Amino acid sequence: MEHLLDHAGLTGNHGMPQLRRIGATQPLRWLRQGARDLARTPGPSLGMGLLIAALGLLLGGAGWKASYMAPALLGGFLLVAPVAAILLYALARQLERGEPASLAGAWQAWRANAGSIMLFGLVLCLAYIVWERLAAIVFALFYEGQPLQLSRWPAELLSGRYNELLLAFMLVGACLAALVFALGVVSAPLLVDRPVDVITAMLTSLHCCRLNPAPLLLWALLIAGLTALGFATLMLGLIVIFPWLAHASWHAYRDLVEPG
Length: 260
Description:
Blueprint: H1 2-8, H2 26-40, H3 42-65, H4 70-84, H5 86-97, H6 103-110, H7 114-142, H8 153-157, H9 163-184, H10 187-193, H11 198-211, H12 213-232, H13 238-256
Helix pairs in contact: 2-13, 3-4, 3-13, 4-7, 4-9, 5-6, 5-10, 5-13, 7-9, 9-11, 10-11, 12-13
């Protein structure tokens, strides 16, 4: 198995970054470090959080009348979040280097590898489209009755009549989310930090998950749980949660990938 990984370039050969093994509770440390960085850059960080929360409200509004689209729109939000956090990764790197932290400087920083970053964004957008189609198919297969307003979703789905629908949504969403997480856990920060191509970045993320399954499973659960909390507060919680997780993700990258 190791020989196959070496041949594929997953173990640091052929220009691949060297990786580290980390402790099982390291994600909790990332959250503490992310909170510290957020406190150091409240203006630009919370400004990005406000923008993301507004985007979430727009998506929720889009699904208000076409309620079958609501899970697809909101679930897809998680799929494209790594690209939305690009400026915050660059901001975190400014803090790390002791540079003045500004979104203008962060905007200039990501342009050094703009082609690969945009290609990674395209990959995530394709994943979003796949999720939207799958969610529509699941809804069509399992939901019976008149179209629902979004405000009636919780009571209707928790009534017990649609357990199969909920299970199918969770299984399909979890499988796609796990794939995207495995391909993207360090991809976006790596693309900001180094002039690597998108394939190298995604293979690096896959190998990080192979080396550290337990801590990265915890990290995925923390991201999902905190994001769900942001949704539950009508997106207001995302004003803080989104930049907090973005800063924490930068520290995840730094712990998982050896300096280049």
